[in-house]
């Protein structure tokens, strides 16, 4: 099993954190992992992305031309990465930032109302956890249990009090995948 994914959006949306936590969860599962961030100097508000590879086999290169999964939290990311989803792959979109719904009949497109769900949970900070919940349910790359364990490693200790809310947000995101 190898999962090659990219998480992309505006800086400040938790894009790099999603990838980092997924990589930690992969390590917890005993997998080979690669996490490669990419962001401009403006970071917050600018564009950011990270590539994550999780595999049962050694990873030969972090450079990927086409992805099993693209997680796009804004329209520029949808526009940039839509054509890079492999046939049979998955595109996960955050609904509120999507101004033009993509069309491809050879991939699975999952639209998640992450902003709305985060507002219902009274914290926009969990938007990325709602989205990663959809990823975990759709791709089954790592278990939710190991993902939650990864939060304790990836998040600074001062944020550990948010982990129960993060877990709740993940479960909400999972409900978007049928």
What does this structure look like?
By secondary structure, the protein is α/β, with parallel strands linked by helices. It has one domain (2-174): 3-Layer(aba) Sandwich (Pyruvate-ferredoxin Oxidoreductase, domain 3). The protein contains six helices and six strands. The protein has helices at 15-28, 75-81, 114-120, 127-139, 144-154, 163-174, and strands at 2-10, 32-39, 47-55, 67-72, 85-94, 108-112. Helix 1 packs across helix 5 (144-154) and helix 4 crosses helix 6 (163-174).
Count of structural domains: 1
How many angstroms does the end-to-end distance come to?
22 Å
Q: Numbering strands along the chain, what is their spatial order in the largest sheet? A: 2-3-1-4-5-6
Mean pLDDT: 92
């Amino acid at each position: 099993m190898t999962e090659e994914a990219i998480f992309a959006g505006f800086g400040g949306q938790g894009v790099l954190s999603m990838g980092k936590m997924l990589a930690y969860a992969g390590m917890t599962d005993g997998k080979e992992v690669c996490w490669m961030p990419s962001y401009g100097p403006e970071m917050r508000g600018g564009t950011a992305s990270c590539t994550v590879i999780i595999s049962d086999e050694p990873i030969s290169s972090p450079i990927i031309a086409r992805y099993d999964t693209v997680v796009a939290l804004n329209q520029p990311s949808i526009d940039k990465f839509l054509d890079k989803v492999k046939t049979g792959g998955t595109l996960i979109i955050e609904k509120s930032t999507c101004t033009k719904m993509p069309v491809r009949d050879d991939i699975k497109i999952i639209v998640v109302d992450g902003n709305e769900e985060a507002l219902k949970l009274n914290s926009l900070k969990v938007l990325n956890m709602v989205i990663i919940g959809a990823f975990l349910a759709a791709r089954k790359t790592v278990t939710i249990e190991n993902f939650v364990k990864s939060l304790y490693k990836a998040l600074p200790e001062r944020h550990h009090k948010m982990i129960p809310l993060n877990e709740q947000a993940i479960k909400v995101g999972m409900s978007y995948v049928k």
